[in-house]
Amino acid sequence: MSPAVDQRAVESLLAFWADAGVEVSYADAPIDRLAEGVAMLRAKSQPPPPPPPTRPGLAAVRGPDVGAAIAAAKAAAAACQDLDSLAAAIAAFDGCALKTQGAKQAVFSRGVADAPLMIIGEGPGADEDAQGAPFVGRAGKLLDRMLKAAGLEGRVFITNTVFWRPPGNRTPTPQEQAVCAPFVERAIALVKPKMLLLAGGASAKAMLKRDEGILSMRGRWFEWLSEDKATELPAMPTLHPAFLLRTPAQKKKAWQDLLTLTERLDRPERPH
Ligand code: URA
Fold first, then answer.
1. Residues of the signal sequence (predicted)?
2. How many whole angstroms from its chain centre is CA 23?
């Protein structure tokens, strides 16, 4: 193409733009608006950026925050000199993620403050969440009937490994249990039971720090050891009463566990 042709082409193009009302040029180089539009569409289809990290020590307890929540739970529990102040400290505690996952209230305990037997379940269900006490639903009624039949009525203190209802009654996670553990341990120190009955696999695993199934652990004696290793207590895992409601054929085993435990509680001098 010759320079003369170029010049005519440029003049013609400028006249075209002038006729269209474009009289001023704002940049030396052309801008590809189509390419810009494509880039904007691509950016919109990218996944959103990750949310900012959660604040340490608050409800969303994950990763290193679990350590901070456990430290806060230990400090709060250690300051409690009786069960009432322990109940109040648990209710005021914000370190367990379960507290903000739909639970209505904290569920701590029921029973006798100086009971010889402490029963530790997994976590509150819907009835416990509504009433604020552990084992008050159908599973709790079965537990009460079994305790009465074994001569243990009025001789137990009942609590759970976590104090807020897990959403949908799911099993509490090891993190949730670890955060609540200092309060459970403080309850043991204040009640001073002679032995522990661990209801269900999630309770037995957390309290005994063992990764065994409940069907192999149930009915056997283990030693529960406090965090500072100063206190040791005999502990027996047993089948959870909610499991017994679903599988009544297994009731015989849980009954056998309860009788073995009662025998040791009432006749500690005998070999076990
Ligand atoms: N199941 C539990 O483990 N604990 C309760 O308090 C109720 C049901």
1. none
2. 68
Residue type present at position 226: S
pLDDT single digits (tens) 70-95? 999 999 999 999 999 999 999 999 99
DSSP letter (8 states) at residue 150 = T
Per-residue pLDDT of 142-194, as tens digits, reads 999 999 999 999 999 999 999 999 999 999 999 999 999 999 999 999 999 99
- Mutating to test ligand 1, I would choose from 240, 243, 244 the residue with most ligand atoms within 8 A of its C-beta, which is 240
Domains belonging to the chain, first-starting first, are 66-265 (3.40.470.10)
Cβ(125) – ligand 1 distance below 6 Å: yes
Give me 266's structure tokens: 């009432």
Distance CA 172, CA 149 (A): 30
Q: Is 127 near ligand 1, meaning CB less than 6 Å away?
A: no
Ligand 1 centre distance from Cα of residue 12 (Å): 86
